[in-house]
């Protein structure tokens, strides 16, 4: 059988068209696989990290007078023949009275006498250096006081006590001290502390001789009468951690700073709210048990599962409670001693807000890629269709011309016969 030009041309074009279509599908498949590999979630292997251990700074413990805080400072000291163990507690003038610290509520210009009992639990006599200093609360919530080489400028200067006391082995001594509130003292809470300590001589890592000061003490909190104003302010900042996997949301990190702008001690309970177009999520921050006037605390939370859909509102609202003094006026607290501040009156909540903008770049990249694929596919499809129609029309035209030629040859043959 002899194929006509139409059949020969049509077969070749069909084969060529199949090859082009196969090549196009292969390119589209390769592009799709590349996108999947690019945005496939990667499994992260956690590497063990180093945890920093915070060393106690110079100060006096805020608790029961039996915790030691050590500070190394250059200077002369007395070598200790053996370790010295001691404790310091509030006293009623005769013995320990059950309090863990002293809280006073006094008018300006008032002077009161308090007592501390120093107990020597060692097997030899020891001399203890007595100190009073300004107090503060650390970021972890512990009460501490300025070190011996730092000058007090506030309530620490209101306290007068002997320079030292000598205690026999296994004995105790009750030491009186006075608290005098200046006439111009501002109303509100004022933190200070008293401590008994010893100095010894040691060497540092470089072999240098240093003096080591060890102190144990308790807080002396004085509330000066007058207008009490519990207040706090909140400052908020934030950042959005974008996930480059378009099928996973990102993480919002909210950092906030709470400042005690009033004149009373506060307890605070912050709540963090993260809101986007898809709704909001509330997260409880770390409770601040106690914060003195003028102090600040930093906090941060991470909220996962937040999609990048433009503006994200960050709101921090902290419940504020003004703490009441414990065992004021030198009176002993309830049985067992005061271990934490008593609850007080609720104050106006403190609020702060900020906003971050999260752009959906990974999703936009995928959307643009999908649109490009669709446009490329449809354009290629139109070109293939137009080419196919052109080839079919060309084949039909050749077929018509071939038919005309065959009919002309037949007429000439008949005429010759």
Structure, described:
22% of the residues lie in helices and 41% in strands. The chain is α+β, with helices and mostly antiparallel strands and 417 residues long. Strands 1, 3, 5, 6, 8, 10 and 11 form a seven-stranded mixed beta sheet that branches. Strands 14, 15, 16, 18 and 19 form a five-stranded antiparallel beta sheet that branches.
Order of helices and strands: HEEEEEEEEEEEEEEEEEEEH
Q: Into which percent range does the helicity of residues fall?
A: 10-25%
Distance between the termini: 27 Å
Question: Structural class, from secondary structure content?
Answer: alpha+beta
Low-pLDDT runs: 1-19, 36-81, 328-342
The main pleated sheet reads as: 7 strands, mixed
- Total count of helical runs of at least 4 residues: 2
Beta content comes to 35-45%
Mean pLDDT: 80
- C-alpha-based Rg, rounded: 42 Å
The count of β-strands is 19
Shape: elongated
Summarize the structure.
The chain is α+β, with helices and mostly antiparallel strands and 417 residues long.
């Amino acid at each position: 059988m002899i194929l006509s030009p139409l059949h020969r041309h049509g077969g070749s074009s069909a084969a060529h068209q199949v090859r082009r279509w196969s090549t196009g599908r292969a390119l589209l498949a390769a592009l799709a696989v590349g996108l999947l590999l690019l945005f496939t979630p990667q499994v992260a292997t956690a590497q063990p990290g180093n945890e920093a251990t915070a060393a106690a700074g110079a100060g006096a413990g805020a608790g029961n007078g039996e915790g030691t805080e050590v500070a190394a400072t250059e200077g002369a000291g007395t070598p200790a023949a053996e370790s010295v163990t001691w404790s310091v507690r509030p006293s009623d003038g005769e013995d320990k009275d059950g309090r863990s610290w002293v809280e006073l509520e006094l008018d300006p210009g008032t002077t009161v006498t308090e007592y501390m009992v120093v107990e020597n639990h060692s097997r030899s006599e020891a001399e203890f250096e007595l100190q009073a200093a300004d107090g503060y609360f650390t970021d972890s919530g512990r009460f501490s006081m300025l070190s011996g080489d730092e000058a007090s400028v506030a309530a620490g200067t209101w306290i007068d006590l002997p320079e030292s006391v000598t205690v026999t082995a296994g004995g105790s001594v009750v030491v009186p001290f006075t608290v005098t509130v200046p006439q111009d003292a501002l109303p509100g809470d004022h933190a200070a502390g008293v401590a008994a300590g010893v100095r010894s001589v040691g060497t540092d890592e470089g072999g240098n001789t240093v003096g080591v000061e060890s102190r144990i003490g308790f807080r002396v909190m004085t509330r000066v009468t007058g207008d009490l104003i519990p207040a706090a302010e909140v400052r908020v900042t934030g950042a959005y951690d974008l996930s480059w996997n378009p099928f996973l949301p990102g993480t919002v990190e909210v950092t906030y700073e709470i400042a005690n702008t009033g004149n009373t001690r506060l307890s605070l309970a912050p709540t963090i709210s993260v809101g986007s177009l898809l709704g909001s999520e509330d997260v409880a921050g770390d409770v601040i048990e106690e914060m003195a006037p003028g102090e600040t605390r930093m906090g941060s939370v991470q909220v996962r599962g937040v999609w990048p859909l433009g503006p994200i509102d960050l709101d921090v609202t902290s419940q504020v409670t003004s703490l009441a003094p414990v065992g004021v006026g030198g009176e002993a607290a309830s049985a067992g001693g005061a271990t934490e501040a008593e609850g007080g009156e609720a104050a106006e909540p403190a609020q702060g807000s900020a906003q971050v903008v999260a752009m959906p770049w990974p999703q936009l990249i995928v959307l643009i890629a999908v649109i490009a694929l669709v446009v490329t596919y449809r354009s290629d499809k139109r070109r293939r269709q137009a080419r196919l129609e052109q080839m079919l029309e060309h084949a039909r035209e050749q077929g018509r011309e071939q038919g005309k030629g065959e009919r002309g040859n037949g007429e000439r043959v008949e005429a010759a016969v």
